[in-house]
Amino acid sequence: MIKKKSRKLTDKLLSRLEKVECPDTTYFGERFPIVMKRGTGMWVHDIDNHRYLDFTACFGVLALGHRPKVTLQALRKQAAKLIHGMGDVHPSTPKIQLLELLAKISPYENAKSLLGQSGGDAIESAIKTAMLATKRNKFLSFAGGYHGLQFAPLTLNHREDFTKGFESWIEGKSYCLPFPYFKGEISSTTENLSHELLLNKHQLQQPEKVLEILEKELKKKEYAALILEPIQGRGGKRGFSADFLKQCQFLCKKYGTLIIFDEIYTGFGRTGKMFAYEHYNVIPDLLCVGKAMGGGLPISACIGNIMDVWEKSKGEARQTQTFLGNPLACYVATETIKSIENHLPTFQAELNKIDREFIKFTEVMNSNKLSEKFPFQIRGKGFMRGIWFYNQEEAFCVPLMENLLENGFIVLPEGPRADVLSLTPPLIATASHYKKILNALPRMLENFK
What we know:
Blueprint: H1 8-20, E1 36-40, E2 43-46, E3 51-54, H2 57-60, H3 69-79, H4 93-105, E4 112-116, H5 119-134, E5 138-142, H6 151-154, H7 160-163, H8 167-170, E6 174-177, E7 179-180, E8 186-187, H9 195-201, E9 204-205, H10 207-218, E10 223-228, H11 242-254, E11 258-262, H12 277-280, E12 286-289, E13 300-304, H13 327-367, H14 370-373, E14 377-381, E15 384-388, H15 397-406, E16 409-410, E17 412-414, E18 420-423, H16 431-446
Parallel strand pairs: 3-16, 5-6, 5-10, 7-9, 10-11, 11-12
Antiparallel strand pairs: 1-2, 2-3, 4-13, 8-14, 12-13, 14-15, 15-18, 17-18
Helix pairs in contact: 3-13, 4-13, 10-11, 13-16
């Protein structure tokens, strides 16, 4: 363990922030957060000039790392021409080019998109499109899902810390399905998960039971769509089996309900493939993307081949906003997506080495008997992994996050109980980067209370 870092400038700036920001925005701990000053590649420096290895990619956004050359060049090139435009009136060339690229890489023959600024915008577009297509107004989602906090996406959220005070708005608009349990890709050899622990402590249900509940609800024929993340981000890197998702798609089609994949987190190489749906061979009716798409700029999209349910514009767009199709964001997005496509084989090759680091971590945890004290399971795919400490108390990973920060690693706790340590670095992360944090973690846990 290293000695505590100086926070002289950090504490001064955080004191200023606390006076002017909504109190329900930034979390303040004893030595948390830092104030970011600059970033390069995998590394971030704070205002007190301490360096950190970024294992968040800033919520999965910076797929190519901090300030990659492709982003800087695209920003300079487009800024010299046109920074802002008129999204739904006079389109710019970058907007048209981005929409063409999204259509090309999507799984649809006649793809059209609705652009937005955030993931929540994309989900809201999907909700509206599904309502127009089905003439229904209710939705299905899974426990632990996170689809944004705007009012429409908020109806899909069932965590009390997000919905408190807004229950009257949410009530009756969606049904929350229990999340099914599936084994992780790489597991601890001392795994001792029982059905009782999964159900009573973690509210995880058997897949067959979840499908029964889903069909019971679908039979009512009042749901416009089932909306899900192929791998939950904020929910703790838990995912589905291919067979389960195929069954969901079959049931939805049987009862006239659309299926929407929220790939805002999982899209653009995050899971080791361009999109997570490729792991399951299930093509959704609508695909929502964002985060890594913009290379650090705010942009998102809802993509599908059913967009013609929207009437052709008669001069006043029904789904728009001031910054829709912003030229700067569109051009950077186009160049970012192309770069991810080009480098994806390299990223995929590195994942084989990264998997070996997780195996070594498991071996160390077992040899030190730390896996008996802190039993765990590794969940997720590709560059979207979580270490689930399933036997610990709620918020176990919050002090773990703070200790890792003090030791030079930026990570986040996730899951409904904050018992998952999330590892979602930029796609440029190598096995040597993972080795650093996976070597530090057992040493930290040895002294963890």
